[in-house]
Amino acid sequence: MSEFGKDIETDLHLIDVRLKQLKLEYEQYFLGTRKREPLQTRGEVQKYVQLYAQSPIKNTGYRFKFNNLRSRFFTFRRHWDDTVRKIEEGRYERHVFRADLKDRERNEAKDRRGTAAEKRANLDDSGDIFEAYVAARQATGQGAKGVTKEKLDSLLAQQEARIRKKYGAQKVKFKVVVEEGKAKLKATAVRP
Question: 119-131: b or e for each residue (b if 16 or more CB lie within 10 Å)?
């Protein structure tokens, strides 16, 4: 390729090619596949545009083509600067969407795993100790074989009577917790 500035036709073609390449590099940067902004390529295109902006172009066809390329470059440059500013401020739609998606996936995984504290909170709200206990046993791998609602209700009634008598409680709240990988029932005396 000849030296830049010698032949206007090849120079305009080079500016066009470099501008298309720059547009592609910016798209890669905005998508996250390119880690850094393509400032070197942008500087080269800026230099080429400034060189011909300061020198008169006598051929009207070449002048038209150059003005077209220059206006495309300025339009792209404004768009790229706005997008970079949005990225820096954390408002870029693609990144916000991706962050929301990751948060959603993280929350879904957290819900599937379920920590002991979350299980306790969910069980307090559910009100059905039997279903919660069976679900916790299955989640911990203990299995629910031999556990029936009648047996559990009987056991809870006996335990509630003992706790009421021992602590003078009006009411006893039961909740299912997972400790050391095992599902357990915890009782809490509610005093008057």
Answer: bbebbeeeeebbe
**Structure tokens of 53?**
């902006």
CB 129 within 8 A of CB 159: no
In this prediction, residue 112 carries a pLDDT of: 66
CB 11, CB 66: distance < 8 Å: no
What is d(CA 19, CA 8) in angstroms, rounded to the nearest whole number? 16
Burial class (CB in 10 A: 0-12, 13-18, 19+), 64: exposed
What are the mean pLDDT values of the chain's consecutive 10-residue runs (192 residues total)?
Answer: 72 94 93 90 93 90 94 95 86 76 79 54 55 83 81 87 84 85 84 68
pTM: 0.51
Q: Which residue's entry shows tokens 């545009």?
A: 49
CA-based nearest residue to 2, from 18, 20, 14: 14
Do 113 and 106 contact (CB within 8 A), yes or no?
A: no
Q: How far apart are CA 17 and CA 144, in angstroms?
A: 68
